[in-house]
Write a structure and sequence with these properties.
The protein is mainly beta. It is built from 1 helix and 12 strands.
Length: about 110
């Protein structure tokens, strides 16, 4: 499992993919998050910006672009931290992004 800790990425463990992602200067601190297939997971989302951000997971680029058919849509937060409960996902690669700032995005790898 990949866990971000103030820098890019480091190996971590626990649960179905417990991940920390930080938003700072209108960018995420990682472009890849890893989750365990068929297990619920948590994402601790730290928003260091004074702008609204969230994390949403979509099946593909088209859905992300339309902001439709989200597999997970995290609450919008500003300048605080929230722990998202992500439902179990099937194995595959998905798109994650901030819906307010879609250029903030990456790949959610579920395996």
């Amino acid at each position: 499992r990949t866990v971000t800790r103030g820098g890019r990425r480091s190996r971590g463990g626990g649960g179905g993919g417990d991940v920390t992602v930080t938003a700072s200067n209108v960018q995420f601190d990682t472009d890849t998050i890893q989750l365990t297939a068929a297990e619920e997971a948590t994402i601790e989302f730290v928003n260091d910006d004074q702008l609204v951000h969230n994390i949403a997971i979509y099946p593909d680029d088209a859905a992300a672009g339309d902001q439709s058919d989200a597999l997970f849509d995290g609450e919008d937060i500003t300048g605080t931290t929230v722990t998202y409960q992500v439902p179990a996902l099937e194995a595959g690669e998905y798109v994650f992004q901030c819906d307010t700032h879609p250029a903030m995005n990456g790949t959610a790898v579920v395996e």
